[in-house]
Amino acid sequence: MADTRSTQGFEDTATHVNVKEYYGKVLKKTVDLKTNACMTPSTPVPLHIRQALKMVHPEVSDKYYGCGLVVPEGLEGCRVLDLGSGSGRDCYMLSQLVGEKGYVTGIDMTEDQLEVARTYVDYHMKQFGYKKPNISFVQGYIEALKEAGIEDESCDIIISNCVVNLSPDKKRVLEEAFRVLKDGGEFYFSDVYSSGRLTEDLRRHRVLWGECISGALWWEDLLQLAEEVGFSTPRLVAATPVTVDNSELQSILGDFRFVSATYRLFKVPAGGRKPALVLYEGNVTGLQQSFTLDTQYTFKVKEVVAVDGEVAEILSRSRFSDAFTVQPGAPAPPGAAVPKTDVVNPFELSQRKENAVPGPATGGCCGAKSTACCK
């Protein structure tokens, strides 16, 4: 992992300049957001994450412009990269979860945010009782990780919380994420998605872009981009409706709808996949009784489940391999459910849940009745 070297060889676009201005100069605190974004998660955050967040310096949390949490399972000892790390709140929380043997790198293009994050490295290492830092912050662009010094196959996990939509070149973001992930690595990220491809006029709206709306990707385009880059099929973890309560902005958006969705993409081989029977051993920290991969698969401990070939590859090649017994090609037991291979529409899922209990606090960046959510 790289430390604090600056990005070279990558030119700012007008979009990058506008976003840096918005998050470096216009916004000073969360309350400065022009919409009712970044609400407190509507369901309790798991205890171990709440405890980790309490250890984060108040100024770091105060300068953080995200909402919700993007915290995948099984972090111990992992090397994690946070795209658009902002003031470093999530990075400092993650540095506790990966432990002294793990490492967290935050990358952000906004120098004002990085200054806050870097100021408190020594403070947090002392708080955590670490002998040496397991965290660093890099100035750079999420489309240009190589230029920022992030090496090939150097990360176990990449996370991002409502930042990809701020990029004008989302395919390049995915390509760079794929490059720096190890085989079996995961890109676990939350973002805002649109119900269709947005018009160029909307994409040029500076406030809507800065508030993470007009840069939203059509959710079906994510499926295509992931396939082109080489990732596994995006697996939907959670989806929550996003409503724009500002009447002026809503009139500009017309009939377009938006959803906050968390996806996980794995870097696993594309060929030779066979359906399999899998058995969850119950040894993922905090998930001794069951493990939820996505909206389609929840594995209960010691229960045999039939999965398709891609899920079998994910469970056998990712950091979860020690948590599952996988038997490729084994005949399904009588009465076993047919493996789920259909793609889940996040808008249909969010609509079903709109009047029900909200999704996990760690499973999305935006709560209902918010316009968007950014760092």
Key words describing this protein structure:
375 residues; alpha/beta; 3-stranded antiparallel beta sheet; 13 helices; 15 strands; disordered N terminus; disordered C terminus
Please characterize this protein's 3D structure:
It is a single chain. The protein is of the alpha/beta class. The protein is built from 13 helices and 15 strands. The protein has helices at residues 14-26, 47-54, 58-62, 89-98, 111-119, 121-128, 170-180, 200-203, 206-210, 219-229, 247-253, 309-317, 346-353; strands at residues 69-70, 79-83, 103-108, 135-139, 155-161, 181-194, 217-218, 235-242, 258-266, 276-280, 290-292, 298-300, 304-307, 324-328, 363-364. The longest helix has 13 residues, at 14-26. The protein is globular. Residues 1-7, 30-43, 357-364 and 366-375 have low confidence and may be disordered.
Number of helices: 13
The level of helicity is: 25-40%
Distance between the termini: 22 Å
Strand content: 15-25%
General form = globular
Order of helices and strands, N to C? HHHEEHEHHEEHEHHEHEHEEEEEHEHE
Which regions are unreliable across 5 or more consecutive residues at pLDDT < 50?
1-7, 30-43, 357-364, 366-375
Instruction: Decide which structural class fits the backbone.
Output: alpha/beta
The rounded Rg comes to 20 Å
Main sheet summary: 8 strands, mixed
Mean pLDDT across the residues is 85
Number of strands: 15
